[in-house]
Amino acid sequence: STAPPALAVHNIQVVYGGAIEAVRDVSLEVRSGQIVALLGSNGAGKSTVLKAVSGVLDTEDGEIEKGSVHLFGEAVERAPAPAIVAQGMVQVPEGRRLFATLTVEENLVVGAHLQGAGRLAETRDYVYTLFPRLADRRKQIAGYLSGGEQQMVAIGRALMSRPKVLALDEPSLGLAPLVVTEIFNTIRKLRESSGLTILLVEQNANRALAIADYAYIMENGRVVLDGTSEQLRRNQDVREFYLGLS
Ligand code: ATP
């Protein structure tokens, strides 16, 4: 098809504080309806790429120095986060960043207002359909929920803007294996039931490759390898260094 990809990143360089080059010459593509994983160890630059495409780098004195980011064919590399959200992509930050003293429902509603979303009640009910556990806990204080439930609130809050592309930063971080399974099943379900396109930043390569169509591996600010999940799982270096297999 000739439709532009959901997200296309070309040769971006990202610098923090005008000096620290965190990402060099990174290119990647996420086609509509795909789950694409961005893998690599701590400090490789994954989160920086995700922040760059989401337009939130300025809060950390970071900047895209070179290169381009296109969302459904539109250049967004200089766009602020709200404009990117309005164009259909929303980020779920690492560490969830919930309003810890507000209830589950208030987190969803505040999220919707911050993102300028309409059809609030309808979208909230859709989120509760996806996460029945959140519906049961709608009046509970978010800060007292389990880690997995908090991750669900963070994803639910992002969904309140009715995105087409969801960018997830380490959704499995700090969660028990069973809960990680649940979160990853949910991500798969979001793609299947809602046709969402997903960019997934993960340190857990095993889990990510199990649900992704395609993946990029970063080291020291660069993409060093990319391929379908199948190809990467067969790659000897990937097996050894990222999957703990031999
Ligand atoms: P992690 O899993 O730890 O988040 P990562 O692969 O996502 O790792 P980044 O967080 O993107 O990596 O970090 C890439 C590089 O940029 C690292 O060297 C990091 O120290 C640096 N860096 C990240 N954020 C900032 C910042 N706000 N200011 C300065 N340097 C930063």
Can you walk me through this structure?
With 246 residues, the protein is α/β, with parallel strands linked by helices. The chain is built from 10 helices and 10 strands. It has helices at residues 46-54, 81-86, 104-114, 120-130, 132-136, 147-159, 177-194, 205-211, 229-234, 236-241; strands at residues 7-16, 20-30, 35-39, 62-71, 74-75, 89-92, 165-169, 197-202, 214-219, 222-228. The strands form 2 sheets. A 6-stranded mixed sheet has the order 6-7-8-3-9-10, sandwiched between helices. Strands 2-1-4-5 form a 4-stranded antiparallel sheet, with helices on one face. The longest helix has 18 residues, at 177-194. The radius of gyration is 17 Å and the shape is globular. The protein starts with 6 loop residues before the first strand and ends in a 5-residue tail after the last helix.
Give the topology, please.
Layout: E1 7-16, E2 20-30, E3 35-39, H1 46-54, E4 62-71, E5 74-75, H2 81-86, E6 89-92, H3 104-114, H4 120-130, H5 132-136, H6 147-159, E7 165-169, H7 177-194, E8 197-202, H8 205-211, E9 214-219, E10 222-228, H9 229-234, H10 236-241
Parallel strand pairs: 3-8, 3-9, 6-7, 7-8
Antiparallel strand pairs: 1-2, 1-4, 4-5, 9-10
The protein binds adenosine-5'-triphosphate.
Residues 16-17, 20, 22, 40, 42-48, 60, 62, 203 line the site of adenosine-5'-triphosphate (ATP).
